[in-house]
Write a structure and sequence with these properties.
Blueprint (H helix, E strand, L loop, with lengths): L1 H15 L4 H14 L4 H13 L3 H14 L4 H13 L3 H14 L4 H9 L18
Helix pairs in contact: 1-2, 2-3, 3-4, 3-5, 4-5, 5-6, 5-7, 6-7
């Protein structure tokens, strides 16, 4: 469908315009206007808002998305980042725990966001049901 191609093109253009945040935001808003149900456009816009320091605006978008799909790792990771930047550490840990329950492979991403880890940091995670660490 033509509109989905235009949405993808606008999202890709916004990603290429990282040095022009105002124009990138306009492209993402236009993509969302074309297709309000587009997960990609909404996720990129929320991530853009968070990156530009509007964590409250990003978190509002995240919370709406999580009402629809509470198990989406992308939204949960963004929730962790926004909550931590806003100083809501307990809620960020709760989002981290939810992410870890959904997808064990996302454990590192969740811990990295909540604890602001560096490349050299090491996490030891125990999976009690399968007896591995």
């Amino acid at each position: 469908e033509f509109s989905s191609l235009e949405v993808a093109a606008r999202v890709n253009l916004a990603c290429a315009l990282k040095d022009q945040p105002g124009e990138a935001r306009l492209q993402l808003e236009a993509a969302l206007h074309l297709c309000p149900e587009s997960r990609e456009a909404r996720l990129h816009l929320a991530a853009h808002l968070e990156h530009q320091g509007d964590c409250e605006g990003a978190l509002r978008m995240v919370q709406c998305a999580l009402e629809i799909d509470q198990r989406d790792p992308g939204w949960l990771i963004l929730a962790c980042r926004c909550l931590m930047r806003l100083g809501h550490k307990f809620e960020a840990l709760r989002a981290c725990a939810q992410l870890c329950r959904i997808d064990a492979a996302s454990t590192y991403a969740a811990l990295r966001e909540v604890f602001r880890s560096r490349d050299q940091d090491v996490f030891i995670v125990t999976f009690p049901r399968c007896g591995t660490t």
